[in-house]
Amino acid sequence: MDSAALFSLRLSLQVAFLATMLIVLVGVALAYLLAMKDFRGKELLDMLCTLPLVLPPTVTGFFLVVIFGRNGFLGRQLYELTGWSIIFTWQAAVLASFVVALPLMVKTARAALESVDRNLINASYTLGHSKLETALRVILPLAKKGLIAGAVLSFARAMGEFGATLMLAGNIPGRTDTMPIAIYSMASSGEWSRSAAMVAFFTLISGSFLYVANLYSRRTI
After folding, report:
1. Tell me, what's the pLDDT at 191?
2. Is 146 left (phi over 0), alpha (psi -120 to 50) or beta?
């Protein structure tokens, strides 16, 4: 690999790692809420969490530009307060990957949490444990393998994110060109041998993560 390809690989790993950290924190909280609580608007929240999974990534990217662009609702306020805009930065790639990959974590984690035996949860309450103690000592440990599978899938999806990242972070060589964007640029400019090498490497990495996620998913059954 040349230095440009290595930069894209390093940036993709950095973006996927940071996005996955956020996804685990937010995704598990949302999944716990959806799996364990009944409240008004639950189906609406579930739909909003899942929407990026079915929307074309470019549409998700468009929404992100509308919200976080320099003239967006939040982007304008952020720029006026700090003089900094997230658009066309590597942080924008993290945000795009976070939004696109979050549904995988929420769906997988919710299924894992809902599979925990209710009798064990009730037994914990009977023994005097609070809801927080029961969540930390009973529910989350029993759903651990499903949560790990969700995190692995989210990491793989974050690494492969393209459309929303291109819309929000752009394609700036040496700054925001993650591996999928670098592959697109190389193929567009006719550099087939370089793009084929990156495609093969990327497929190997993604396949490995999918294999690991499947292993954990089977062990939760």
Report:
1. 87
2. alpha
How far apart CA 136 and CA 84 sit, in angstroms, is 38
Q: Tokens for 51?
A: 């929407």
Cα separations in angstroms, 115 against 87, 99, 192, 208: 40, 25, 47, 26
Query: How far, in whole angstroms, is CA 9 from its chain's centroid?
Result: 17
Q: Which two tokens stand for residue 75?
A: 């982007």
Of 3-7, 32-36, 63-67, 168-172, the one with minimum mean pLDDT is: 3-7
pTM of the predicted protein model:
0.90
* pLDDT of residue 147 exceeding 60: yes
Structure-block tokens of residue 216: 């954990």
CB-count burial class (<10 Å; 0-12, 13-18, 19+) for 8: buried
**pLDDT for res 221:** 46
Q: At what angle do helices 179-188 and 192-220 cross, to 10 degrees?
A: 150
